[in-house]
Here is the input.
Amino acid sequence: MATKKDKQKLSKRLRNKFKLVILNEDTLEQKFSMVLSPLNVITWISIVVVSVVALTIAAIVFTPIKEYIPGYADVTTKKMATYAAMKADSLEEILRVKEQYLTALRQIINGDTLLDAIREEETEPNPSEIHYQRSIEDSLLREKIEKEEAYNLAFSDNEDTRKKKALFFKPVNGIVSESFSKEINHLGVDLLAKENEPVLAIMDGVVTFSDWTNSGGYEIHLMHENNIMSIYKHNSKLLKKVGETVQAGEPIAIIGNTGELTTGPHLHFELWINGIPVPPEEYIDF
Here is the structure.
């Protein structure tokens, strides 16, 4: 019972009103007066404290002031960290592509080409199940291809290189604007063609490079049998990736005008045999 009375007394004291008066010291004239109670004073002090704390937190969270507080990273550091993470991811992707390129090149040098691996996995057909009857459509297609690719031969037998006769597809239907010339270090031919014309693989092969270079723009390299390599530069788009196998006449890129060493839409085509560039016009009838 005594506790209840004490609480009532405390409540009454908090509600007791006092008058705050400000007087002129010389004239004793009243300048300001205010009626207050202890409860009102506590309430106003609490509101002021909460407001100050809220404003302080907002200033720290939403303004650069937080950069001066130990433990907070500044905006520049965060941007640099984000850029570094993106750069590291890009470098990892470049490294992965380079590793694929080196793996494919190593297999080709060792003679374990991807073409041979694929051929080994192919199931041998049963000769009794093969029907050699030629359809009308097949005959017409063969006749059309023979006319288009007439005299588009490759090279003869050679004891030094031990190559067999091969048939090259034209990389693109176009006009030769600049021929092969070692004197000016132009190790291929430039072919003018229609916009968005597909670039074709000249032989069955494996993609050993498919990426951007400053000089050649989007370029793609193919490794073929008998140590033959073909290079296609200044494309607008690449259709194959490193490690993929392609067939002769299959689209591998789209003709374009990319890279520094170009003055207009065209295909720069190079043909290398045993690591030496050769004039493509001697092997392909453009």
